[in-house]
Write a structure and sequence with these properties.
CATH architecture: Sandwich
Number of strands: 19
Mean pLDDT: 87
CATH class: Mainly Beta
Number of domains: 1
Structural class: mainly beta
Order of helices and strands: HHEEEEEEEEEEEEEEEEEEHE
Distance between the termini: 24 Å
Low-confidence stretches: 1-31
């Protein structure tokens, strides 16, 4: 197996300007005839590193971003050059919405047990007063301000949930909020935006009794109005083992929209978690203009969940690697 290497927060910036497909073909619901094109890839190797970002916002969020080049890859591997021009900020941001490094951080580190490989680590052991006046915990990558909304894209990323996630199997309630990726079409917190829509992918627990963890998915119009949702309890979330997640997004209505997500644990066959054919934009939007914001990797949960993990002497840790982003690529049939 090749060394895990494509995940680096590359995810974000490449999306925007790179992802555009023919608007006409989308309007007609016709697939593009173009060949798949790699937009960005990273394994967090080479000079890839997390550095401070001096940006600020009105609710005290803290930012960093990823820079450098993964020289283990031959192309589409430059965090600065290959993302430039895709988003208004021109960078791939990491956001914390508060807290400090004793409570959360994102770092590029040597993979535990495999020091020749680098990964992006999300680490969290507490909550803090954050946005919306809530006490909660968040680390996320931001791809906001997409200059031309994404009409269609495909990404893959390798993921490792540390064994500490096993303590959540004994969490005494259902888990309905532990987000690992989020898609905005459009961001509904923007004052001028009337047609917000989001898709949230997370890790859940279906019962208050001891149980395995599963993937949960839902979509909402502005105002948290559910459009469709999924709760796949048959597919168990792999813990303590690398797996690859693949996403596919196509903007459309109830007939033409699609969101697909599959999981492939190392050494096992791919398992399709979701293949939703439904709205991927606000149900009342008369002229959808593509996905404008995206959190390709994320760790976001309630104060209760993170407090329970901490009470068991554990921390929430996710390792990310081998990120790839394409246009004109679709799920295997």
């Amino acid at each position: 197996m090749k060394k895990y290497r494509n995940l680096k927060i590359s995810i974000g910036l490449i999306f925007a300007g790179c992802f555009l497909f023919s608007v006409a073909s989308f309007a007609q619901g016709n697939p593009s005839s173009e060949k798949p094109e790699l937009i960005f890839q990273t394994g967090f190797e080479g000079s890839s590193r997390v550095v401070p970002d001096l940006s600020t916002n009105d609710y005290g969020a803290h930012f960093e971003y990823i820079t450098g080049v993964d020289n283990t890859l031959s192309r589409k591997n430059d965090w600065d050059k290959d993302w430039r021009g895709c988003t208004k900020s021109g960078t791939f941001q990491l956001q914390y919405t508060g807290g400090d490094s004793t409570k959360r951080y994102a770092k590029i580190i040597a993979e535990p047990g495999n020091p020749k490989n680098k990964v992006l680590q999300f680490w969290m052991n507490d909550s803090w007063h954050a946005s919306e006046g809530q006490q909660k915990a968040r680390i996320q990558a931001n791809i906001y301000g997409v200059k031309d909304g994404f009409k269609e894209f495909y990404q893959s990323v390798r993921v490792f949930l540390s064994n500490d996630f096993n303590v959540l199997k004994n969490y005494p309630q259902k888990i309905t909020w532990l987000t690992i990726s989020e898609f905005w079409n459009n961001e509904w917190w923007v004052a001028t935006e009337k047609h917000g829509f989001r898709i949230s992918l997370g890790i859940g627990k279906p019962t208050g009794d001891k149980s395995d963890l599963n993937f949960i998915l839902d979509s909402q119009d502005t105002g948290f109005k559910t459009v469709w949702s999924g709760d796949n309890t048959k597919l168990k979330v792999p813990i303590g083992k690398w797996f690859t997640m693949e996403y596919y997004f196509k903007e459309g209505n109830k007939e033409t929209g699609q969101f697909y997500m599959a999981v492939t644990p190392d050494g096992e066959p791919r398992q399709v978690a979701y293949d939703i054919h439904n709205f991927t934009h606000n149900t009342n939007d008369p002229s959808p203009d593509g996905l404008t914001g995206y959190n390709p990797i994320k760790l976001y949960t309630s104060k209760e969940v993170v407090a329970y993990v901490k009470s068991q002497g554990k921390t929430l840790q996710i390792y990310w690697d081998d990120f790839k982003l394409w246009k004109n690529k679709r799920p295997k049939q």
